[in-house]
Amino acid sequence: MKIANKKAVFFDLDHTLWDFEKNSALAFEELLPKFGIAVDAAQFNALFSPINVKYWKLFRDGEITQAQLRYGRLKDVFTAIDYDVDDEMIAKTSQEYVRLLPTNNHLYEGAIEILEYLKPNYSLHIITNGFHEVQALKMKSANIDHYFKTITNSEMAGCKKPDPAIFEFALTAANAQKSHSIMIGDCIEADVQGALDCGIDAIYFNEHHLETQPQITQVNHLLELKKLL
Length: 229
Hints:
By secondary structure, this protein is α/β, with parallel strands linked by helices. The protein is built from nine helices and six strands, in the order βαααααβαβααβαββ. β2, α6 and β3 (150-153) form a beta-alpha-beta unit. The longest helix has 20 residues, at 41-60. InterPro entries: HAD-like_sf (IPR036412), HAD-SF_hydro_IA (IPR006439), HAD-SF_hydro_IA_YjjG/PynA (IPR011951), HAD_sf (IPR023214), PGP-like_dom2 (IPR023198), Pyrimidine_5'-ntase_YjjG (IPR052550).
């Protein structure tokens, strides 16, 4: 069933449109040999992924800084694989990872098609907890920046999803009303519940078919949005 009366669609970026896992793996494939780190890149990325999620939750909750996030997630991976590396190398590795990550441009299957489908009938926007410079580079590398009228990040808003203030900031930037807006993202807490608590309807991008509350509107593939919007 179509969701009626919507004019503005707000997307999360990482893990929703931009394929973080694939792009992250490519970054480590290039980075690790460059620094002479004799570790299998696929194994490294497999460990990095859940650790990164943990650190981003800590950052989202205001418990750590950006610097602590970028250092801690790599430190924990090296510890997990029992690889001896000093703080200077971790700092260099982190800096290079942040530089390489947004140069990769893989999107989720159907991302371009759904943006092309939505653009004639909706104004499209991004709300991300990511950092401005990195997120802008990701969107430019993937050639999707031109689809979006506004991009709200946590730095400009001064807060992070699920704080209602970042949604209010994005609505103001987009000149959009809550009743005419909808949020699409992969994180129940930050994207979906955050939007709902602010009075904005939401769709959960449930790529991994995780169990969730039945009343939450969800899709498992981006092209399923055509049935809703």
